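Below is a typical protein record.
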Amino acid sequence: MTPEGWAVLFAGAAVIGVVTAVLAWRRRERTPAATGLAVTMCGVALWSASSALVNSSGSDLVHDAYPALLMAAVGLAVAGTYALARGVVDPSWRPRPRLVGLLAVEPVVMVVLGALPATRDLVLDGHGAGGMGVDQQATLGPAFGVHTLYSYAVIGVSYVLLARRWRTAVGLFRRQLGVLLLSAVVATVGNVITIVQQLDGHGADLAPLFFLVTGLVDCWAVLRLGFLRLVPVAREQVVDTVPDAVLVVDPADVLIDLNPAGRRLVALLRRAGWGRP
């Protein structure tokens, strides 16, 4: 594929990232998970946009700025993923200034290394567009390797938190967590494939395109699955133990959740011929 073709694909991924970030940000008052999703997708948008620029421009300025933009984008995506996982697992969680500062240390260091001419090659050596059909060669520097290990460590912790919560969740929240885990796996697999196929210094950075798939899945979850429309505050300990039927509907009168007593009520209504509520 030509560099122009890659630029179009990356630009599309950037648009999806921005749209998803806006959708999530509008729901930030309901749950901190929305803010985490918004930060993650802002990182995806910046990552994709920088890839689009570097594939569509031959400017030395753009290519020199690319390592720093890449590090900033990945840093946002990683920190947002962690915040998203913590917010889903514990809706009462709020990021403390100390935690925000700790999560910012590594990305800031990497951005500085990528921005300074004297240390830029520690991140990417001979960086170029790196897309298929482009003759330029890019070698991953030693700082990039450390950055990759750090990023996967943080993301790994996030996935463990989500998986543990998924095992104990029920109903709507279990489905929501399943969607998050599925979309997260897609992005991670894409990033691993990208790093492996770029070890020889060639090949396109496909990770933003895999994140495009993640953004589409999360958009679907936000708009269709009721994701972030309900905050699971001690749900298993409170709502599920109430003997009365509890049915939750969204503003469009769509049934999005119900407790065990509600399921029994719905089953009785269906058997009685009342149809689907």
User: Anything to note?
Assistant: The chain has eight helices and four strands.
